[in-house]
Amino acid sequence: MRKALKTILLLVALFASGGISRAQTDGYDVFVPIAKYLAKGDADALSAWFAENLDVEIISSNADCSKSQAKQMLKAFFESYTPRSFDITHTAGKANMKYALGNLSAGGENFLVTIFVGCKEGSYLIQQLKIERS
After folding, report:
1. What SS3 state is found at 28?
2. Of all helices (H) and strands (E), which one includes residue 57?
3. Residue-by-residue DSSP string for 87-131
4. Which of 42, 51, 45, 49 is closest to 77 using CA atoms?
5. Residue 59 — left, alpha, or beta (φ > 0 → left; ψ -120 to 50 → alpha)?
6. In this structure, how many other beta carbons lie within 10 angstroms of the beta carbon of residue 26?
7. Residue (of 69, 68, 91, 71) closest to 79 by Cα position
8. How far does CA 34 lie from the centroid of its chain?
9. Residue 43: is it exposed, middle or buried by C-beta count within 10 angstroms (0-12/13-18/19+)?
């Protein structure tokens, strides 16, 4: 009984300190599918990764909006600027919050893309998406 209690306390301490996290996915890179959908200009598929509310900044438009509104903003952007390629240049973060920087070539222009994802209930979702001219 005492050994079981010690084990439980150790696990609680590890969870509390961040030593173990449900958000850790054994090497899974959340940005792989997100990058694929950005490169394709697939707003529908990308929106599956959106949080219910997120901050979206596209060129000079900035909005704290719903998942549905963000999808429409992104669709409008992709209609004006057809993507040719997207490459992630940098990623960083902790187990429950990560970000990526990337270069998007679209509509004959180059854009810098910043993506913040947060983990909620074991799933990563985009909290902020920023697309600006580089």
Report:
1. coil
2. strand 50-58
3. EEEEEEEETTEEEEEEEEEETTEEEEEEEEEEEETTEEEEEEEEE
4. 42
5. left
6. 4
7. 71
8. 7
9. buried
pLDDT per residue, tens digit, the chain (134 aa), is 544 444 444 444 434 434 333 333 445 689 999 999 999 999 999 999 999 999 999 998 899 999 999 999 999 999 999 999 999 999 999 878 999 999 999 999 999 999 999 998 888 999 999 999 99
Question: How far apart are the C-alpha atoms of 96 and 86, rounded to whole Å?
Answer: 24
CA distance 101 to 121: 24
Count of C-beta atoms within a 10 Å radius of residue 109: 12
Torsion angles phi and psi, residue 113, rounded to 5:
-115, 130
pLDDT reported for residue 108:
95
